[in-house]
Automatic annotation (TrEMBL):
<dbReference type="GO" id="GO:0003935">
    <property type="term" value="F:GTP cyclohydrolase II activity"/>
</dbReference>
<dbReference type="InterPro" id="IPR000926">
    <property type="entry name" value="RibA"/>
</dbReference>
<feature type="domain" description="GTP cyclohydrolase II">
    <location>
        <begin position="22"/>
        <end position="180"/>
    </location>
</feature>
<keyword id="KW-0547">Nucleotide-binding</keyword>
<protein>
    <recommendedName>
        <fullName>GTP cyclohydrolase II</fullName>
        <ecNumber>3.5.4.25</ecNumber>
    </recommendedName>
</protein>
<dbReference type="InterPro" id="IPR036144">
    <property type="entry name" value="RibA-like_sf"/>
</dbReference>
<dbReference type="GO" id="GO:0009231">
    <property type="term" value="P:riboflavin biosynthetic process"/>
</dbReference>
<keyword id="KW-0862">Zinc</keyword>
<keyword id="KW-0378">Hydrolase</keyword>
<dbReference type="GO" id="GO:0046872">
    <property type="term" value="F:metal ion binding"/>
</dbReference>
<keyword id="KW-0686">Riboflavin biosynthesis</keyword>
<dbReference type="GO" id="GO:0005525">
    <property type="term" value="F:GTP binding"/>
</dbReference>
<dbReference type="InterPro" id="IPR032677">
    <property type="entry name" value="GTP_cyclohydro_II"/>
</dbReference>
<dbReference type="GO" id="GO:0005829">
    <property type="term" value="C:cytosol"/>
</dbReference>
<comment type="pathway">
    <text>Cofactor biosynthesis; riboflavin biosynthesis; 5-amino-6-(D-ribitylamino)uracil from GTP: step 1/4.</text>
</comment>
<dbReference type="Pfam" id="PF00925">
    <property type="entry name" value="GTP_cyclohydro2"/>
</dbReference>
<keyword id="KW-0342">GTP-binding</keyword>
Length: 218
């Protein structure tokens, strides 16, 4: 877990390494530029993707934690895939930055997340499963997100998230969060219990009474 009394890491040690265009298919308004970094405090290969109109002033920022099962494979056990799609659309329109953080499984890694899924299929919720594995509820530290934003020249942002801890940690790391925009609610029968646990235990701003069109029909 993030420790609020950790001293801030010197942001001047972090700088972009390369910044290259992704060469998106035409028709998507503008290209996306992907940046890598030198000196990130956890040494992992996090990515920043700048989208939409350049120089948007206070950029819209999505701090997205890696979820291979949801982002890439389309798993409906969580809401990560639809959140990523939604963020990419919003960023293309408004102009902003996606920070794609390599924090799979809220920081416990892919294999242990799948261990946790097995425990959840036995009746534990997402946090109880982490605890049964001897792990904290959420191991994510967003120091690297603050470092990446500073290296890109952003110290004031609008944040797209339902997770209050992201704004709290960024603020503690010297980034001004001017506004927080909630993401949409992407509920389905397979992720309802997961989203309920997030709303009740970690106070994610998710309006659970909203039902998907599919659920209304079922
Ligand atoms: N340990 C664990 N990690 C999970 C589980 N389901 C999704 N994740 C991971 O959780 C991370 C996404 O976190 P979420 O809590 O869904 O959302 P958030 O990033 O806190 O908040 P938002 O900004 O609103 O999306 C990704 O790294 C996923 O791999 C699970 O059941 N157990
Ligand atoms: Zn996910």
């Amino acid at each position: 877990m993030h420790n609020p009394i950790d001293p801030p890491v010197d942001p001047c040690t972090v700088r972009t390494r390369v910044r290259v265009p992704l060469r998106l298919p035409t028709g998507l308004m503008a290209d996306a530029w992907v940046s890598t970094f030198h000196g990130l405090s956890d040494g992992a290969e996090h990515l920043a993707v700048e989208l939409g109109p350049p120089d948007p002033g206070t950029p819209l920022v999505r701090v997205h934690s890696e979820c291979l099962t949801g982002d890439v494979l389309g798993s409906a056990r969580c809401d990560c895939g639809p959140q990523l799609d939604e963020a990419l659309t919003a960023l293309r329109e408004a102009g902003g930055v996606l920070l794609y953080l390599r924090q799979e499984g809220r920081g416990i890694g892919l294999y242990r997340k799948l261990d946790a899924y097995r425990l959840q299929d036995g009746g534990l919720d997402t946090y109880e499963a982490n605890q049964a594995l001897g792990l904290g509820d959420d191991l994510r530290d967003y120091t690297v997100a603050a470092q990446m934003l500073r290296a890109l020249g952003h110290t004031c942002v609008d944040l797209l998230t339902n997770n209050p801890d992201k704004a709290r940690q960024l603020t503690a790391r010297g980034i001004t969060v001017r506004r927080t925009h909630p993401t949409g609610v992407h509920i389905n029968p397979h992720n309802r219990a997961y989203l309920t646990a997030k709303a009740e235990k970690t106070l994610h701003t998710i309006r659970l009474h909203e039902r998907t069109e599919k659920e209304k029909i079922a």
